[in-house]
Amino acid sequence: MGVDLPASTSLSPGIQAMIPFLYAAWSDRHLSVPEVESLRQQAGALPFLTEEDKPVLREWSDPARPPSRERYQQWLSSGRLAAEALPEDRTASLAELGVWLGLAAEEDPDARRDFWAAQLPALQELEANLGGVQEDTYRSLFPLYDQRQKLAEAITESRIDPNDLQRILEGERAGIIARTKKILLRPSFDRPTLRIKEDYREQVLRWCRELAQEGIGALSYPPEYGGEDSMSEYAGAFEAIAYHDLSLVIKFGVQFGLWGGAVYNLGSKRHHDRWLRETGTLELPGCFAMTETGHGSNVRGLETTAVYDHEHRELIVHSPSIAAGKEYIGNAIHARLAAVFCQLIVDGESHGVHAVVVPIRDAEGHVLPGIRVADNGYKMGLNGVDNGRIWFDQVRVPVDNLLDKYGGITEDGSYHSPIRSPGKRFFTMLGTLVGGRVFVPRAGLSAAKSALAIAVRYGLRRRQFPSESMRSETIILDYPNQQRRLLPLVAKAYALQFGLDHLLDRFVARTPDDMREIEAMAAGLKSYATWFTTAAIQECREATGGKGYLAENRITDLKADTDIFTTFEGDNTVLMQLLAKSLLTEFKKSFQEDGNIAVLKFIGRRVTTMVTEQNPYVVRQTDREHLESPGFYQTAFHFRARRLVTTLAQRLRAYIKEGKSAYEAGLLCQTHMIAAAEAYVEQLVVDAALDRLEGLETSDVSETSDVSSLLKKTIQLYAVHTIEGHAAWYLESGYISGQKSKAIRKLVDKLCAELRPEAGVLVDGFGIPDKLLGAPIAVV
Amino acid sequence: MGVDLPASTSLSPGIQAMIPFLYAAWSDRHLSVPEVESLRQQAGALPFLTEEDKPVLREWSDPARPPSRERYQQWLSSGRLAAEALPEDRTASLAELGVWLGLAAEEDPDARRDFWAAQLPALQELEANLGGVQEDTYRSLFPLYDQRQKLAEAITESRIDPNDLQRILEGERAGIIARTKKILLRPSFDRPTLRIKEDYREQVLRWCRELAQEGIGALSYPPEYGGEDSMSEYAGAFEAIAYHDLSLVIKFGVQFGLWGGAVYNLGSKRHHDRWLRETGTLELPGCFAMTETGHGSNVRGLETTAVYDHEHRELIVHSPSIAAGKEYIGNAIHARLAAVFCQLIVDGESHGVHAVVVPIRDAEGHVLPGIRVADNGYKMGLNGVDNGRIWFDQVRVPVDNLLDKYGGITEDGSYHSPIRSPGKRFFTMLGTLVGGRVFVPRAGLSAAKSALAIAVRYGLRRRQFPSESMRSETIILDYPNQQRRLLPLVAKAYALQFGLDHLLDRFVARTPDDMREIEAMAAGLKSYATWFTTAAIQECREATGGKGYLAENRITDLKADTDIFTTFEGDNTVLMQLLAKSLLTEFKKSFQEDGNIAVLKFIGRRVTTMVTEQNPYVVRQTDREHLESPGFYQTAFHFRARRLVTTLAQRLRAYIKEGKSAYEAGLLCQTHMIAAAEAYVEQLVVDAALDRLEGLETSDVSETSDVSSLLKKTIQLYAVHTIEGHAAWYLESGYISGQKSKAIRKLVDKLCAELRPEAGVLVDGFGIPDKLLGAPIAVV
After folding, report:
1. CA gap B660, B748 in Å, rounded
2. Least CB–CB distance from B542: residue in A295, A567, A671
3. What is the pLDDT of residue A634?
4. How many interchain CB pairs under 8 A, A with B?
5. How many angstroms separate the first and last alpha carbons of chain A?
6. CA-to-CA distance for B291 and A204, rounded, in angstroms?
7. Nearest chain A Cα distance for residue B656, angstroms
8. What pLDDT, on the 0 to 100 scale, is given for residue A428?
9. Nearest CA in chain A to B297
10. CATH 2.40.110.10 domain residues, chain B
11. With respect to CATH, is domain A285-433 assigned 2.40.110.10?
C-alpha cells in the first residue's frame, strides 16, 4: 500500500496492541466482570507486555473504573486509523489490528516484523475468548467492515459448499492438485516483482527445480526413471502450477513435457536410460527445437538438415540460412541438450523430419562450438521463460543421438523405419507430441479461472453509484451488464473443464487406432479453450476497471502471459483447419464405407431433423421448459455441427466441379472450415458436460442434489449463451424464429440473474487458494 | 538481432566493403570497359580505401583479368553471409552490404560504427552509377531478396499514392502532424527498452519537456500564454505523439490537457496569469486529482472536502478516509500543483464538487506537509506515466486557489455562482472537461493504426505452407481468413477517423447550446473507438503469431498501453449509458415539444419504413448493386438506431407501469441501453464517412477519383461488416431475410478480397513513419 501509519503516541507497543481489545471490552458493555477478569489474566501472559505495561493494562481494564470519555475516544481513533491502513488482505479482526498497532509503535518496525506476526495466534485466541464482540464494535473500528462483510456474505449466501464443486471439477486429480498447491504455497514460491528478464528466469528455474525435487516433473515417466507413469497426474500438476505463475508452467512443460517427451516418445530405451532420470530432476535441462523462423506452423517444411556421414558414424546438423534458425525455443538459455527437428539425409536422400539430440552447452553452461544462440528478448509476457533462437553450423553428433523410434540408421549406414510411408511416419511422430495440445488448454483454463475469480470477487465487493435508497452504492455484480460480462464466462469455464477432462481421459486411454480422432479433438479443444482464455481474461481486465490495470491485481500478467497460447503448440486458425479436414475425411469415409446405406441414413437424418426440429412449431417454440431442456440445446448443437460439415463438403465439391484445385477450393472455404470445426468442438463440450451432469444425478450421494442443480443451470447458461452467439446462423438456417431468438436472449439474461447469488461460490469452487490468487482486490 | 558475423578473413575493411561491388561487376557480365573504368575511378576516391587497398582493387577490377572461379565464389559467399546477418530493416543493396562487411572486418567494430554508417551515401552513389545491376545478382546475394521485393511490390501494386490517402485522413491537421512527427523523429526520441518504471518515467518527462519547448504543449492556450489558441492543432499533435509512445501521450495529456485545462477552463484570469504559461512550458508540472478509490466513475459522490475558514480566508482540503484518497492520478510523482476536486463546504453547507489548486511539492520536488503520495506501482502498460494515490490531511490553501469560474467565495465569505442549480453547475463544470473524451479516442486510433500497419505489412511479407505450385509459400494475407481478420479493422479505422473528425469539428465550434449533444457524442465515440482499439490490437497480436508476441515488434506495448483507454476518462459502459439517457431525453423531448404532430410524424416514419425498407421485396433483395449502395446501409443503420431507442423507451415505460422505479427499470434495460447507444454511434460514423466521401467526389480535383473509389469501397466494407455483426438483430427484426444475411456475409468476403491488393497502400495512408512504427517485421 505504501501508506504509513501516523506517528505513534507515547504508549508502548505492547499497550498499543491491546487497544482494540480494551476498546471492545468497554464498548460491548454487557461484558461481565468474570469475562473482563479472564481477559486481564490471559493478557498478562502475553510475551510482548513488559513489566511496565502490566499495571497500565490492569488499571485500564478494571471493571470498577471505566475509562474517561477522552481515553475511550482516543482508543477508538487510534484503532480506526490503524484499521484504515490495514492491508486489504487482512481480516477485520481485533487481533490483526493489535498486531498492526504494536508493530507501528516499534522504533524499528522492520526489525520487529516477524516478532509481531508471531503474536497473531495468541491475540486471535484472546479475541475468540472475549465472547460475542458486537458487530457494531467492528463496524466502528473498520471503515470497510460492511464491504468486507458484504463480500463474505455474497460469497457464502449460496447454500452450496464450494468444496463440493471443487471435488467435481478436480475429479480423480484432486490428490495431485492438492499436493502441488501445497508446494506452491511455500514461502519459497512467493512471487516478487521481477521486471528484468534475467532475474525472472533465474527465479523460475529455481521454482522448477524445487518442483522437480518433489517428483512433480517426472510424474508422467515410468517409475524406473523416477516417475509415476501417470499422464493424468502430470495434467493435474500442470493445471495447478498454472494457478501460480505462467512462466513457471511453460518452463515446466518445456523441460518435462516437450524435451522429456521427445526423448521418451521418439527415442529408444538407450535414450531413456541415458537422459530421462536427470531430465526429471532437472539436473539435465533440455529444449525442444522444432519451429523455425521461416516456417512457423509448417513443420514439414523445416530447413535444418542432419546429413549422415557413414565414415564417422556421425550426423552433421546444420542451419542452411538465418531463416532456418530454430525460433522461439523455450529453455534455450538454460538448456544443455536440444532435441533438434531436422530433415534427415542419408546418402543424399531425404527421409523427412526426425529429431536428433544435439549438445548445445557444456556442464558449466558455456555454448559449444558451432552453436549460436540469440535471446528472443522481451515478450508481451512469459518473461520468466528463456526463449531464444538457435543456429547450427555443421555440428557433428554421434548417429546414436538420433531419436530413432520411428526411423533410424542401421550399422551398414542405411535408413530404416517401422513405418514405410514418409507421410504416415511424419504424422505418427508428430502424434506422439499431441500431449502439449492436451495440457496447454488446461493451463489456459486455470489462468482464466484465476482472472474470473478475481473479477467476480471484485464485482461482489466493489460498489458504484448510489442506488435508489442512497444508503450504499450498488454492488457492481448486481448490474445486469456486469453479470452478462462475467457469468457466461464462468459457465463456459465449467463446461470447458468437462470438455478438457473428456479429452484427457481419451488421451490417457489412447490406442493407435483412435490417435487420429484424439489429435483432431485436441487441435480443436486447444484452440477453443485458448481463445476462451484470451477473451475471458480481457473481459475481466475491463470489468475490473482501473484496479484490474494495476499489476498487483494479477489480471495484467495473466493476460500477457497467456496471450501466446492461441499461437504456440500450433496456431489456432491452423489447428482448426486441421480439425475441419479431419471432419471432412470422416464425413466422406462414412459415405464410402457404408455406400448407399450411408446416403439413405443421411437423408433419413435430414428428414428427421426437418420433422422434429425444423418444423414450424419447434422453430417458434419459446416456452422456458423447452428452452431449458438439455434436449433442445443438444439437438441445436448437433444440428449446427452436422450442417456445417455437410455444407462445407458440398461447397468444396462445387468449387472443384467448377475447375478449381483442391487447394484453391480450401482457401475459398477457410472461414467455413473454421466455423465447422468450432461447431464440432462445442458439440463435444456440451455432450461431455451433460454426461458429467448425468453421472452426478444418478450417483447415490444424495447431498449433491443442490450442487448438481447449480451445475445444471451453469451448463444451461453455457449452452444457451453459445446458441445466442450463433443466433444469426440459426436464424439464417431457419432453425429458430426471430421470436425464439429473442426468447433465447432473454433466457440468457434470466440465467445470469439467477446465477448471480451463486457467483461467489462458483468461483470459489475453482479451488484457487487466496495466496495464489494474489490480488488484493480479490481477498475477502 | 544478436547475430554475429563470421570471423573476417585477412582482407582489410576497405576491400571487404568493395566485395559486393566487385562481385556485381563481374557477375553482370555486360558491364562495358568504360563502366568498369568509372567504377575503379570512383572507388579510388573512397575515404576508407588505404594506399595498400588501391592496387588490390585495381587488380581485381581489371577488365582484362577476370577473377578465378575460386575468388568469385569467395566474394559471393562472403557477400551472402553478410547479407544473411544484415538487420531486417536494411534494404537489400550493395551499399548496405558494403558498409556491413567493412564494419565487420574492423578490429574494434563498436568504435568504427559511426564511421562506416557515414560511408553509406558514397556507396549508394557508386551503386546507382553501376547502371543496371541485374535482379539475379541481388537474388544470389540476398536470401530474402524475393520476400523483400514481394513486400515492396505488394505495397506498391496499388495505383494509389498513399500520400493522397494521408492528405484526406489528416485534413487541416496535416501541418501540425508533420511538425510533431519531425520532432519525434529526432535521435533524442529514440525508444530504449525501459523496464524499470522510474527510468521510464524520467525518459517520458524529458520527452515531454522537449515537446513543450517546441510549443507543442501550449497549442490550445491563448497566445498570451505561449499558445496558438487552437484545439484542432492540439488534437493533431496529440494523435501524432500517439504514434511514438503512449506513456508520452498520456503524460502530455495530463499536463497540458487535464491540469492545464482545469486551470484554463475552471479558473479565472488571475489563475491563468499565475499558472498557464509555466504549465505550457512544463516548468510547472501539475496533476488533475479527481477520481477517488472508493468511487471511480461517480464523480458526484467524491468524499474529499474543502472547508472554508473565513477567519484565515483559507480552504482546508482533507481526505476523510483511505478510500477518499485520490486514485490513479497521472503526474502524481512529478507534479508540484494539483487541481483537487472536492466538496466545497462554506458555513457548514456543501455546494458540490469544485476544484482547488493545492501545492503538493516544493520547487525541489519534496512532498509538502499534510500531503501523502503513494506510487500506484507497475501497471499493465503506461509504465512511463507516474500514477499515484494522494491524500490530504487538513491542508490549508488561500481561498484564492479555488478555481472559481463557476462558483467562488466572496470577500464577505459567502458562496456565489453564476449557475444557480447545483446539478447544472456540476454538469457545466464537467462539461468543460469533455476535451479528454474528444482526444483520447484519437490517440487510441493512432495506436490501432500502428498495430494494423505492422500486422498488414507482416501479412504481406510472411509466407506459410507451400502453395500449390510449391515454388514459394503463400503470403499470409492471401488467406481469406487473414483478410477477414485484418481488412474490416483497417476499414473501420478509416471510418472512425471521419467520425472522430466530425466530433472534433463540432467540439472546436461548440456553443453552450450544443454542449449537451457534443458531450453525449463524445461519450459514445470515446467508448466505441477505444473498444475498437482494444479489439483491433488484440487481433493484430494474434494475426502476427509468435513475432507479434515479441516486444521488439511493438504490438505488445500498444496493447498493454491502450488497454486502459476503455476505462479512463470515464468507463465505457458507464459512458454508453450516459449517451443512451441523453438519447431517451431527446426522444421524449421531440414528443413533448411537437405534441401530436410528433406522434403523427413518428407513425408516419414507421409506416414509411415498413413500406420502403421492411417490405418483402427489400427484405429479400440480395443483388450486389443494392447491397453496395450507400442508401442501403445508411437506411439500415438509421433503422437500427431509431428502433433501439423507440423500443428502449417502450420497455422502460412498461416497467414503470408495472410499478418498478425508474432506477430498477434502468437496471433491467442496461444491455438494451448500451445497444441503443452503440447504434447511434455507428449511424454517426457512417454518416460522417459518407459526408466526407461525397465531399471528395464533388471536389474538382480530378486525379482523386481512384482514391475516392478506394475510400468508397473501404467505407462499404465498414458498413457491411457492421451490419453483418448485427445480423441476428436484423433477422429478428424482420429487416433482412436469411438469404439476404448470407448475401451480406458473402459481400464482406468479396470486399475483403477486392481490398487485399490495396491493403499495403491503405496502411501506408496512415502516414506513420517507419521509425515510429519501429517493428522490424513491418519494415520493407
Report:
1. 43
2. A567
3. 92
4. 209
5. 17
6. 37
7. 14
8. 85
9. A464
10. 285-436
11. yes
Asked if A545 lies within 8 A of B296 by C-beta distance, the reply is: yes
Which CATH topology does B285-436 take? Butyryl-CoA Dehydrogenase, subunit A; domain 2 (2.40.110)
In CATH terms, A173-266 corresponds, of 1.10.3470, 3.40.1000, 1.10.10, 1.10.540, to: 1.10.540
Residue with cell 471510418: B495
Ranges of residues in chain B with a pLDDT under 50 are 1-8, 465-472
CA-to-CA distance for A273 and A275, rounded, in angstroms?
A: 6
Are the C-beta atoms of A572 and A677 separated by less than 8 Å? no
Q: pLDDT by residue (tens digit) across A297-326?
A: 677 788 899 999 999 999 999 998 887 899
B437-770, superfamily in CATH? Butyryl-CoA Dehydrogenase, subunit A, domain 3 (1.20.140.10)
More confident residue, A6 or A537: A537
Nearest to A287 by CA among A320, A322, A257, A318: A257
With 80 as the cut, is the pLDDT of residue A689 above it? yes
Fold of B172-266: Butyryl-Coa Dehydrogenase, subunit A; domain 1 (1.10.540)
Q: How far is CA B749 from CA A759, B273, B753, in A?
A: 40, 58, 6
Pick the more confident residue, B214 or A117: B214
Residue B546, min C-alpha distance to chain A (Å): 6
What pLDDT score was predicted for residue B157? 65
- Is A471's pLDDT higher than 50? no
- What is the C-alpha to C-alpha distance for residues B583 and B577, in angstroms, rounded to an integer? 10
Q: Which helix (H) or strand (E) holds A365?
A: none
Task: Say yes or no: B296 contacts chain A, CB-CB below 8 A.
Answer: yes
- The 3-state DSSP class for residue B402 equals strand
pLDDT digits (tens, 9 = 90+) for A95-109: 888 888 888 888 888
SS (H, E, C) A452-506: HHHHHHHHHHCEEEECCCCCCEEEHHHCHHHHHHHHHHHHHHHHHHHHHHHHHHH
Nearest-CA neighbor of A697 among A166, A168, A175, A170? A168
Q: Find, in chain B, the residue whose alpha carbon is nearest to that of A372.
A: B3
CA distance linking residue A575 with residue A580, whole number of Å: 9
pLDDT at B1: 29
CA distance A311 to A413: 9
Stated as kind and residue range, the H or E segment containing A550 is none
pLDDT of residue B101: 86
Q: Flag if B661 and A2 touch (Cβ within 8 Å).
A: no
What are the pLDDT digits (tens) for A48-62? 888 888 888 888 877
**Residues B456 and B760: beta-carbon distance below 8 Å:** yes
Average the pLDDT over each of A265-269, A587-591, B573-577 and give the range with the smallest value: A587-591
Contacts of A375 in chain B (CB under 8 A): 2
**CATH 2.40.110.10 in chain A, residues?**
285-433
pLDDT at residue number B471: 40
Q: B374 - beta bridge partners?
A: B389
**Residue A579 scores a pLDDT above 50:** yes
Residue of B nearest to A544 (CA): B567
Angle between helices B705-725 and B670-698 (to 10 degrees): 170
pLDDT at A472 over 70: no
Q: Is B191 on the interface with A (CB under 8 A)?
A: no
CB B318 within 8 A of CB B324: no
Report the SS3 class of residue A676: helix
Intervals of CATH 1.20.140.10 along chain A: 437-770
* Cβ count within 10 A of residue B37: 13
Pairing of strands A388-392, A326-329: antiparallel
Mean pLDDT along residues A509-533:
95
| Residue B128: per-residue pLDDT | 79
Which chain B residues have a beta carbon less than 8 Å from that of A538? 534, 538
For residues A518 and A342, is the Cβ–Cβ distance under 8 A? no
Residue B470, CA distances (Å) to A290, A322, B247 in order: 22, 21, 46
